[in-house]
Amino acid sequence: MIAFGAETRIFDPSGLPLPDETPSSHPKVQELRELSLWSEGQVWVSPERHGAMSGVMKSQIDWIPLAVGSIRPTQGRTLAVMQVSGGSQSFNAVNQMRVLGRWMRMITIPNQSSVAKAYHEFDEAGRMKQSPYYDRVVDVMEELIKFTLLTRDASSYLTSRYSERKEDAAKLEGRAKLSSI
Question: How do residues 125-163 score in pLDDT, each as one tens digit?
């Protein structure tokens, strides 16, 4: 991502408690939420386990709230989804993450990546080897950057909903009535 001019930060889920196991004031939960608020675009990557995204990935997503007061921490942010598999190529995890990204009002890019037999695709240092899978990952990152730049100034317009504007207007009207009493 640096090659595309983007600043990147990575969340390490080690130590992240299960959702609802501890208060949201837990340091790992706060770190995750701060990174979500900081980001313009996100990349969700999960191994496929038993035909689904991993429980660790789902826990991370579950700790990101749909709303904090009037702020929607993920609304309008761009999202790329990728998965790695130990066996043959599948798209189960990316499809599940794509559904969750839409649920969280993210602009989920069309491109995605699924790396089959991932144990063949990385060297001893953990770097991905040159291959068509590598090229696809770069394609996905490039598309994420492009969509982020294209939607940067338009995301609030693109994600504005009539029902939310109506609700906000009702709240303002209610406050105005209270202040006049």
Answer: 999 999 999 999 999 999 999 999 999 988 778 777 788
Cβ atoms of 62 and 100 within 8 Å: the answer is no
* Domain locations in the chain as residue ranges: 2-179
Contact residues for 48 (Cβ-Cβ < 8 A; gap 6+) = 54, 83, 84, 85, 86, 90, 92, 93, 114
CATH of domain 2-179: 3.40.50.360
Dump pLDDT digits (tens) for 36-56. Answer: 999 999 999 999 999 999 999
- What gap in Å lies between CA 58 and CA 122, rounded to an integer? 24
Three-state DSSP at 66 gives: coil
Helix axes 55-63, 27-38, angle to 10 degrees: 70
Those residues whose C-beta lies under 8 Å from the C-beta of residue 146, and which sit 6 or more positions away, are none
Indicate the helix (H) or strand (E) that contains 92.
helix 92-103
Pairing of strands 78-84, 107-115: parallel
